[in-house]
Amino acid sequence: MRLLFRHRSIQTRFTAAAAALSLIFFTLIAIGLDLMIRNRVRDQLFGDTQRVATGWIGSMKPGRIPSLIPNTAVNLLQLVDSHGRVVAASPAAAGRPPLSAVRPPNDDRIIHLTECSHSGCFVLTSVRVSPQEASLVWGGEPHVVYAGTAEPPVLSTHILEFSTLAAALLATGFATWIAWAAVGRALRPVAAIRARMSEISVTDLSLRVPEPPGSDEIGQLARTANQTLSRLETAVQQQRHFASIVSHELKTPVAGLQTQLEEAVLYPDDVDLRETIKAGLATTERLRALIDDIMVFARIRTAAPEPPEPVDLGALVHDELVTTTRDVPVRTRVKGEVTVLGNHMQLIGVLNNLVVNAQRHAVTSVEVSAGREDGQAVVTVSDDGDGIALEDRDRVFQPFVRLAEGHRKDPAGTGLGLAISRAIATAHHGTLEIDDSTRGARFVLRLPLLKRHPA
Questions:
Q1: Is 313 in contact with 370 (CB distance < 8 Å)?
Q2: pTM (whole model) above 0.85
């Protein structure tokens, strides 16, 4: 049964559950209602029979039994003596044996009971005449009065059970229909979302799923799906743009290498093979460096991050910075403890990349500082070179973008160093920007500080 429902729709499963619960609930209500009605009718009948019986006894006088029987629905009346003889009876009970053989005990003069015979069942009340009344009327001989009436159809037949059961089934059916309609209405946006999602493909990520009004779970799901699609569209566009740029960057050195080799093959007497091989090796080395940087950049952007660890940026600045052979000194300054949570090798790679880049463009010196500011770790790398124009401060972080000055000072560069550095900063939930400076370029790396929990 569980496996059967697993393959059904949510609407079917919820409706079936609602139907089962409704059937149980309304069946219990029907049973309770049936018992309540039965008890209510029976109590009313017993009240009527008791009232008639006690009223008849109260009208009896010494030596005379009232012949006038009250005009009531309680039409079965009998006065029975201590020997079981019917002394007086109403027309409907005349000629019958005593309505019941049950006689109330002395300590409980009134009892209610139901008797059945071949002619049907009736409810009656048996009242023992009090000793005072018996002594006054019959010289102390005990007598019993029976007052009864035929059971009404609500008690003698199953019409009440059938009626309450039918009402329970109708209520269950109505509740099931309500549940089916309500769940269907609630899931209607899900069907629209599913239909739209089936139309979305990798070639066209511009479509968005419809967002229902309100802030319920389905609305939140739709908005989250649209946000995910937006991020996916941006990522795919960036990936396509990156692939286009990579193919262009790789095509140029490969085409040059192919030209050199073809010249060596076609004109062996006119080409210096040694120089061709040296040039080919240089081109191959540039290709290797380019491919390595591309793989690092792609891995940072797409691969799952490694488990982070506490990293002391002050120690990195003091002890692990790698500088070039250029005669440009690097001055460092660390203020206080600057510990973040991240990847040690990636962060030292960012700092080294920034320092090497600063040395390349500096005139006399490079300054590196690390400290805390507004709950963040801040590392600043400044040089005293020509600086970077305001309109180029975002471009230099794009893959393969190289300004004229950078290309002149480092012709063999790949143009991926700053792009990789910013990608690492972003992966560490931080930023890498270029701030204003009175002279030269000022790169600022901001990362969240490691939160210390009290012991």
A1: yes
A2: no
